[in-house]
Amino acid sequence: METDNVTFIEGFILLGITDEPDLQIFLFVIFLMFYLFNLSGNLSIVLLIVTDRSLYKPMYFFLANLSFLDIFYSTTTVPKMLSGLLIGDKMISIFGCIAQLHFFHFLGSTEALLLTSMSYDRYVAICNPLRYHVLMGRTSCIQLASSCWLIGFLYSVCQTIITFRLPYCNKRQVTNFYCDIKPIMKLACADTKQGELLVSGIFALVSVSTFSLIIVSYMYIGRHLLNIRSSRDRWKAFSTCTSHITVVVLYIGTAMFMYLSPSTQNSLEQDRISAILVTIVTPAANPLIYTLRNKDVRRAVERLLAQKQHCAKLY
Questions:
Q1: Per-residue pLDDT tens over the stretch 240-299
Q2: Is residue 6 part of a domain?
Q3: Which residue of 92, 160, 278, 314 is surrounded by the most CB atoms within 10 Å?
Q4: What value, to the nearest 5°, has the Cα angle with vertex 239 and ends 246 and 283?
C-alpha cells in the first residue's frame, strides 16, 4: 500500500463554504436563523406530541422520532460550520472527524428508515383501516422505530470503519464544511477504489431498499385511492400523505444524488451544495411541512395557546 508521506495526520482542515469575509458573515446569519428555527420548531413538535393526548397515534410517534433526529442531525455539522464562518475555526481532530462522520450517517440513515416506516403507517391507515390499531399498535411502533435506530447505527459503523481504516498522511483539506465519506476518502494516501465501491454498495443497498419500499407503499395507496368513488374522500385520504411525500423527495432524493454519483472534484462541489439542503434547509423545513398541512397538529397548537392565554388571565 503506497503512501504520500509516512507522517500520519492528527486532524483535518474543513474548507467550509466560502473564503470571502463579507459572504461568510451573511451566510452565518442565514444559517444561524435556519438552525435556531430547526431547534425551536422540532423541539416544539416533540413536546407537543408528548404532552397532547390527542396526538398519541402511530403517525405522530414516528413524527416525534423524526423531529428528535432532525435536531441532533443538524447539530452534528452546523455548529462547527457556524464557528468556521464566524471565527475561522476550521480545524477538526481525527477523533472529532470520526465522531462527526459516524453520527451524521447514523442519524441520517435512521431518518431515511423512519420515513420508510411512516410510509408503511400511511399504507395501513388508508388501505387497511379496520386493522390499523392491531397492525400499528404500541408494541409494533416501538419495534419498528427501534429497528430503524439499530439498522442506522450498524450502517454507520460499517461506513465509518471502511472510511477510517485507510491511511491518511499529508493531505488535510476536506472539500466540505463537515467530515463526510467522499471528501475524506479523497485525502487517503492509498488506493480507495475498493473502499469507494464498498461504501457506495452499502449506501445503495440501504437507500434503494428504503426508497423502493416507499414507492411500493404508495403504489398500493394509489391503487386503493383509485377505487374510491368520491373525489372528496379520495383527496382527504391522499392529503394525509402529502407532507410525508414532500420530505421523502427533499431528503432521500438529495441524499441519493449525493452518494450515488461518481466521486469527482465537480461532484464534491455539488455535494457541498446538496449537503446544505440536507443538513440545514430540510430539517428546518420539516416542522413547517408537517404543521401547515396537518389539522391535528394545528388544533393541538391552538389548544396549547388557548391554555396559555387562560393561565395568563388567571394570574
A1: 788 888 888 888 777 777 766 665 555 556 777 778 888 888 888 888 887 766 777 777
A2: no
A3: 278
A4: 30
